Amino acid sequence: xxxxxxxxxxxxxxEIMSQPKKREDQTLQTHKTRKPIxxxxxxxxxxxxxxxxxxxxxxxxxxxxxxxxxxxxxxxxQIQQLLLNAIQRVPILKKLSDKILGFLSPxxxxxxxxxxxxxxxxxxxxxxxxxxxxxxxxxKNLKGNQLKENTSLDLKRDDxxxxxxxxxVTMCWEIxxxxxGKKICKLxxxxxxxxxxxxxxxxxxxxxxxxxxxxxxxxxxxxxNPSLHWKHHTKGLWTSVDFEHPATFDTLAMDxxxxxxxLSDLLAFRDGKEYYDRIGKAWKRGYxxxxxxxxxxxxxxxxxxxxxxxxxxxxxxxSIENNWELKKLLISTTSKSxxxxxxxxxxxxxxxxxxxxxxxxxxxxxxxxxxxxSGLLNxxxxxxxxxxxxxxxxxxxxxxxxxxxxxxxxxYCTFGAFKILAKNYxxxxxxxLFGKIESLLKETxxxxxxxxxxxxxxxxxTEVDGSLNGLIRTLEIINWSQKLKADGQHSKxxxxx
Length: 497
Hints:
With 497 residues, the protein is of the alpha/beta class. The chain is built from 18 helices and 14 strands.
C-alpha cells in the first residue's frame, strides 16, 4: 500500500511522462489541419468575394502549375516545345497559355521580321544568312543551289530549328512562316543571359551574316512593278533576277585616261563614308551618260555594278503614276546600289513641267502628268535622296539637248557659293588662288555641282592646291568653249542678216 505522499509523487510522475506524448499529438494535429497556401488564399479571399466557382478555378490553376513543373522535369525541351505548339494551335487556349507561360517561363524571345514597318529588315537578312551558313558534318538537313554550270555548289542549312552554344550559353533559333507569308527568325534564350545576348552575341551574328553575304554576294538587277500590281508590303514594289553581265573596266572600250578618271572616282566614292559625313553631304553620286546608241552607256553601268558589287535598280518611269509612288520606290531601294533611269528623254515628257498643272477638266492629262520634273529632281538631290546611303544614280540619254536644263544642273555658281563649297570641301576660308577663281566665275557659266566635283579630295594636306588649280583649268576650258560658241552664234546671226 502506498502512502498518500508516494501516491501523489507517482501521479505527478505519470503526468510528466505523458506530456511529450500530448505535445506530439498536438503537433500531428496541427500538421493535419494545416492547408496549402493556395487553399487558404482561395478560402479567405477569393471565396468570400466570388464564390465557389473561382475557388475551383484557382485550385485548377494550382494543379496546372504542378503539372507544368512535372512536365519540365520529365520531358526534354524539344518535347516541351511540341506540346506547347500543339496547345497554341487552339485559339482559345493560345491566349491563356501565352499569359501563363509568360508569367512562368524563365526564357526571353527576340524576333527578327523580314518586313518591319513596310520596309525590308536587313537584320533579318543577316540572321537568315548566318543560320543558313552554319553547315557542318553534323547537320542532317541541307539544300543545294547552283546558279551557273561553271560555279560551285552552294550548300545551306535547311532546318526550322537551330540550337547552338555561345560562350557557354544555349541559343535556340526558329525560322517561322506566319500568316500572309510573313517570315520571322526567332531567338529564345534564358533571361539570366540577357547581357551576353544583347551585348556580344547579336553583334557577332550580324557581322558573320554580313560577312557571309559579302563573300557569296551575287549582283542582282531589279525592275519596278507597275503600281497596280503592288502588294501591301515593300517587297511587291520590285522584282529581281541575278545579274550576269560580263562587262568590266578591263574590257570596256573607251579612252584610257577617261576610264582611269572614272575608276578612281568610283573607288574614292566607295571608301568615302567619313568624307561625306564630314562635309555634311548625302553619300551618293550622280552620273549622266549620253551619246547615240551603241556608244557603251549600258555596258558602262554593267562594269560599274561588277566593280562595286552594287545591285542595280532599273527604274521605269512610265509605270509610275505620281511623285508619291516615286518616293515610295526610292525608300524601298537598298544601300550599295545603282539606281538607273535609261533614256530619260523618252521616258516621260518632263521638259519644263514642274507643277503638274493641266488643262482644266482634262483628268486624263492630270493623271499622266502627276509625275513632275520637281518630283524627279527631289529624287536626285532633294531630301528624299538621302533615304539610304552609298548609292549611285545614273541617267542615260541619246539626246542631251532634249533634257530640261535643271536635269543637267545648269544653275550657275557665283563666287559666294564657291566660298561656301570651299569651306565645306576643303575647310578653306581664303587662299591666294581665290582671286583668280572669282574673276573666272564672273565670266564662266558653271554649276555648283561641277565646282564641287573639282573640290572633292581625300587628303586635305596635300591636295588642296591641286584641287584649286584643277578648278581653274576647268573654268578656263569652259570659258574658252563658251566664248567660241558665242562667237560662232554671233557670226551666224551676221550671215543671216
